[in-house]
Design goal:
A hairpin with a 2-residue loop joins strand 1 and strand 2. Strands 5, 6, 7, 8, 9 and 10 form a 6-stranded mixed β-sheet that branches. This protein has a 3-stranded antiparallel β-sheet with strand order 13-14-15, covered by helices on one side. The protein folds into 4 domains: 156 residues, Transferase(Phosphotransferase), domain 1 (Orthogonal Bundle), CATH 1.10.510; 135 residues, Rossmann fold (3-Layer(aba) Sandwich); 123 residues, Serine Threonine Protein Phosphatase 5, Tetratricopeptide repeat (Alpha Horseshoe), CATH 1.25.40.10; 124 residues, Alpha Horseshoe (Serine Threonine Protein Phosphatase 5, Tetratricopeptide repeat), CATH 1.25.40. By secondary structure, it is of the alpha+beta class. The longest helix is centred in the last third of the chain and has 21 residues.
């Protein structure tokens, strides 16, 4: 490091990587200065840098974290092996405090999205107690941090040209929500539609990088926009703003192109046209913006831009409203109602305009999601999804949107991974800026157990949709399935910086602590705080509240959660349990045998009808087996549970297949077969899955005196199972 002073009040910090000098001798040491064509010090380089993937400032955060780790422990965090799980024992041996350990683990996270940004890193360093900073100074770590901080500070304070947006390319753009200037505020959805269609038109141009709708919609509202800051947050060089005013059969659309790096307006135009010409206006704006950015438009891209999605504005309004429901649907008991409503709106849209391709594609998405999530897994729902996909492909066989819809259908309804990936390759050709292509590819790779490939696809999607907290939550789920809870927590912490009031994120973050440490306090505090401020949120929190009520053995809280659940369902992935089942479980936990038998009996009648309607749906059969176990029907429960495992092996679906094993273990425990329960638990924890202390605390109630005393583990995450109270199986995580 070189510290120079050109002028009395200005300091420049230069950090030189001596690894750029070619070593004269080859060495296998991870601290070697070069490796093949790579310039730098491999042991301190980020995973994405080593695999020649795109890098940004988060790669530097990784290298800084690896350097600090080495200074504190005199050991490399990953040695010569590929980064996987940080060796916490090194930090523990060096007596590194917990708060600094947490920061270092976040800095060397494998996924760039899990690492703190520069501002977050600075803030977290500032919160370290004085004694921590003294320890860092004694080891030399503090000096390094001071130099880095000084370099950032003095560099930013020096007068210079407008800074280049981090990660932004010259031809990168975001279309912010258009302002609704109409007197009729009901036209807000019309303004959203204008903005959305303009974004869609620009996204067809491969020569542009266009940020997705989910990320830009967060900037809706009447507050003044800080465009430079927004450009940095989205990683774009240019921003489009606009306004829409509709009166009768007339519409005025105003659009302006702004350089986010300098806040300078590059172009602006106002269009006054009949309302029926609104799609032509959007097409003109898109092509003008492309010209302003000197973006090349291929003939097929120009044709897509000039093609109106529909000529029926009423159908388009229905489509826009349905889209809002689909994008807002998340993991809560209202998911089924939202999806059903979206399907109804889209069915009305295609009835008004049978040639409305995008509406057919989204209609297929609604039907397939209901089927895939186990919310309505019936042959009729499957056929409705199939018909919508077929209609889209018949309308425009070459359309990327149609092939994306078919890929989703093949994946969600048939678990046909390779055919779905083939459809995605076709879709990718004409949808260069659609994060959905990358996201779905990531989902498929995850189901195939290709965890690294899945993570890379999620990263690609996040580059186009950087503030999509749902996608960040999905990334955290991948880590949780691998029982890498520290990484899962880091991802959610990052997402909460984007959306600190997001209920799903706050609950998910607290559930990490419950699953990881069996600590119910964070979830209890979050649920109580949200309900105190917004009692109407109770239905959205019903699942989390129910889980919490069982974990804390709180009868009153469990009953309140059951009331809030209403006609909804709750459970992991495709294992969706109706309220009557949960009532039976509550009675069982509370020692009300008669109440449990009555509720489980009603649940069995309902579940048996579902199995008869969908005999090939393994999760439905698995649930029936668990209900039979609750009723004491031992032979039936074991037969149904074993058959479910045969129907849906882990090799075909690692996520729901693991649930088949977990729930058969629960059945064995309820039926007084602790050895068989232990055998299946051992199988479950050796593969990725949701099984955790929290899960077992909810499900297992063994007979007094039963003992589970074997050690099992997945990777380095070893776990002891034993029963010390006779009431619940406890997992003691070895740290």
């Amino acid at each position: 490091m070189i510290l120079t002073s050109d002028e009395p009040d200005q300091i420049t910090v230069k950090i030189i990587d001596f690894g750029l000098a070619k070593a004269f001798t080859e060495t296998a040491d991870g601290r070697a200065l070069t490796e093949g064509g790579f310039l730098g010090t491999p042991a301190f380089a980020s995973p994405e840098q080593l695999r020649r993937a795109p890098v940004d400032a988060r790669s530097d955060i990784y290298s800084l974290g690896a350097t600090l780790w080495y200074l504190l422990t005199a050991q490399l965090p990953f040695g010569d092996r590929a980064p996987q799980r940080p060796p916490l024992e090194q930090l523990k041996k060096a007596h590194v405090p917990a708060d600094l350990t947490s920061l270092l683990v976040a800095m060397v996270a494998t996924a760039p999205a899990a690492r703190p940004g520069a501002k977050e890193l600075t803030a977290r360093l500032a919160t370290l107690p004085r004694r921590r900073r003294r320890k860092m100074l004694l080891t030399g770590t503090g000096s390094l941090l001071a130099l880095v901080a000084a370099g950032l500070y003095f560099q930013s304070s020096r007068p210079q040209a407008p800074p280049k947006v981090a990660g932004a390319t010259e031809k990168s753009i975001a279309v912010l929500p258009f302002e609704n200037l109409s007197q009729d505020k009901a036209n807000a959805s019309f303004a959203d539609g204008v903005q959305d269609e303009l974004l869609t038109d620009l996204a067809h141009i491969a020569d542009l990088k266009v940020v997705s709708r989910t990320s830009v919609m967060q900037y809706r509202g009447g507050q003044p926009r800080k465009l430079r800051e927004i450009g940095e947050q989205l990683g774009v060089a240019y921003i489009v703003e606009g306004a829409v005013q509709r009166a009768g059969n007339k519409v005025r659309v105003t659009a302006q192109l702004i350089d986010a790096r300098s806040d300078l307006h590059q172009w602006a135009q106002t269009y006054d046209r009949p309302v029926d010409d609104v799609f032509a206006i959007q097409s003109e704006i898109a092509q003008t913006i492309a010209e302003q950015l000197d973006a090349k438009i291929a003939p097929h891209e120009k044709a897509a831009i000039e093609s109106a999605p529909t000529h029926d504005l009423a159908a388009y309004d229905l489509y826009t409203r349905a889209n809002a429901l689909l994008t807002s649907t998340s993991f809560n008991p209202r998911s089924k109602a939202n999806l059903l409503q979206a399907a109804q709106l889209l069915a009305e849209a295609v009835a008004l305009d049978p040639s409305f391709l995008l509406a057919w594609c989204q209609l297929a998405t609604a039907h397939d999601s209901l089927y895939f999530l186990g919310l309505d897994h019936i042959p009729l729902r499957l056929s409705l999804g199939e018909a919508a996909v077929d209609a889209a492909l018949k309308l425009r066989p070459e359309a990327g949107e149609a092939h994306l819809a078919r890929a989703r259908h093949l994946y969600q309804c048939y678990l046909a991974y390779e055919p779905a990936l083939a459809e995605l390759e076709i879709a990718r050709r004409t949808l260069p800026n659609d994060p959905g292509v990358f996201t779905l590819t990531g989902y498929i790779y995850r189901r195939q157990g290709k965890w690294d490939e899945s993570a890379r696809e999620f990263e690609n999607a996040l580059s186009l949709d950087p503030r999509n907290v749902y996608l960040l939550q999905q990334t955290s789920i991948s880590y949780a399935l691998l029982r890498r809870y520290a990484d899962a927590a880091n991802i959610l912490d990052h997402a909460l910086l984007i959306a600190p009031e997001n209920v799903d994120l706050r609950v998910a973050r607290a559930e990490v602590d419950l699953n990881w440490h069996a600590d119910t306090r964070p979830l209890h505090a979050i649920v109580a705080a949200i309900l105190a401020r917004a009692p109407a949120a109770a239905p959205d929190l019903a699942g989390a509240s129910l889980f919490l009520g069982f974990c804390e053995r709180d009868r009153a809280a469990t009953q309140s959660a059951l009331t809030a659940l209403g006609d909804g369902s709750f459970g992991p992935d495709a294992m969706q349990f109706r309220r009557i089942f949960w009532e039976g479980l509550a009675a069982k936990v509370n020692g009300d045998t008669a109440g449990a038998v009555q509720a489980f009996g009603q649940a069995r009648d309902e579940q048996a009808r579902k199995v008869a309607a969908s005999p090939d749906f393994a999760p439905a059969l698995c649930i029936l087996g668990l209900i039979d176990a609750g009723l004491g029907h031992k032979e039936e429960a074991i037969r149904e549970g074993r058959r479910a495992i045969e129907m849906l092996p882990v090799s075909r679906d690692p996520i729901n297949g693991a649930h088949m094993i977990e729930f058969l273990a629960i059945s064995y425990a309820w039926l007084g077969e602790p050895e068989l329960a232990c055998e299946h638990l051992e199988m479950a924890v050796k593969i990725p899955g949701t099984l955790s202390y929290g899960q077992l605390r909810l499900w297992f109630e063994l007979r007094k005196g039963d003992t589970l005393d074997f050690q099992v583990g997945y990777g380095e995450n070893k776990t002891y199972f034993y029963d010390s109270t006779g009431l619940v199986a406890i997992i003691e995580k070895i740290k």
